Structures are given as C-alpha cells and as structure tokens.
Amino acid sequence: MISRTTHSAIRRISRVIAVSLLSSLFALTAGAQVMQSPSYKMQSDSVNVGGGNSTSTNYGLEDTVGEAGTGEGASASFNLHAGYQQMQEVYLAMTAPGNVVLSPSIGGTTGGQANGATSVTVTTDSPAGYELMIRASGAPALTSGGNSFADYAASAANPDFSWNVPAADSEFGYSPEGSDIAQSFKDDGAACNTGSSDTANSCWAGLTTSDVVIAERLSSNQPLGTATSIKFRAESGTSHVQPAGSYAATTTITAIAL
Questions:
Q1: Which of 71, 72, 132, 171 is most buried by its number of CB atoms within 10 A?
Q2: CA-CA distance, 208 to 139, in Å (whole number)?
C-alpha cells in the first residue's frame, strides 16, 4: 500500500486559492498466475518431494522439501525469483502529485470560482490490479481558523454530473479523470455512476474523512502505468460573503495492490 499526504493551502480569499500536494513514495512487489479457472487463480506452484501447511494458535507454517533450481537472478531488464514463494511479490509505485494553484482569484464579497488539478500515475504488476483512494484529514476539508468552504454536497447519492453551488454558499470539491476512474465517477453524458464515459469537468464530489476509491484496475498495467488526474474546484456564490484568510486542506492519496 502506498499513502501520500497532500497539503492544500489557500492564500487570501480575495486573491488566489492555492492547493499544495506533498507526498512520499513507496514500492511493493507480486506475481502472475500460472493456472486459473472461472473462479480461482493459482499464482505459482511448486514441484517437490514434500511439504505442506501447519498452523497453531499464533502461527502458520508453509514449507516445501526437495526443490531444485532455486535462487535469485537479475539482468538489465528482468528479475528472477525462483523457488517456493520467492515470486510472491507485487510491484506497486505511485508518482508524487505536484503543487496545485487554484485560479483565478475569488472575491470575498463578489464570489467566483477557482480551479486546479494534479495527477498521479500508479504502476503495478499485480494481476489483480490496484485501487487509488483519497480522503481528507478533516471535515470540512478547506478551512481557515473558524472559517471554511463547505465540502461539496452532491444532490444525490452519486457525484453530480454538473458542478452546482447555490449563490448563498461556498463549497470545495474534486473530480477524478482518467482511463481507470471508478465506476461512480463514470457517466453516460448526463448522469454519474452510469455508462462508461469520462466527460471532462464532470462528476463532482466533496472530500470526506473516509477513503473513497477514485480509480481502479483489475489487471496489471506495468510498465507504463496509468495516470489519474484529480481536479479541484472552489466556489463562493455571488450572494455569499467569504471571510478573507489563508485556507488550508490536507488530503491523503493511497494506492493499494489487489
């Protein structure tokens, strides 16, 4: 699992909203199945003269006897892990998202809308694929002292196909885009969580303090990986007065191999 914490900051509300995303990167490693049926996959097998499984209250033991040709080997392009369970590794990597500056400036009394985006690329050799998730450290996500932008409130259980903030409110939300986006963010050109399209600047949701899957794949995507763009938007309505201040939000983006 890869987790990266992102920090979002907004300068004065009457000027520019800036979102900064700072991350750390980890890599893991898995294999591909050698046999499968409609219901199961066997990732590896072992030809030997003995072995089995043993368990106790606190431990589990898997062993094998009599294997030949075991060990590790490497070349400029490949790694070989030969032997019982040595190949049971999953490679998982995620690029660090860059800083985001939401623009143009938002007037504290006149209102306005500001936009920005970042992108992360997830690469895995797991035959079962990966999930990419996002969560906020607090609710509402975007705050400045006792002031805040409300987390974007969709009109129904699914993300809103079109962004809509009432004139008397201010809200902050996000929308992922890319070939691996989760079904809830796909659309049919009019509604989200239906169809298979990825209409630009559509399917908006508010951040929560629980992990929300924004992208997923059920197969390996090595070596190129898959990029997912995360668009952020903040808006203050024309009849809403948003206090000036430095607004900040912290989010965590997590990738896990399946």
A1: 132
A2: 7
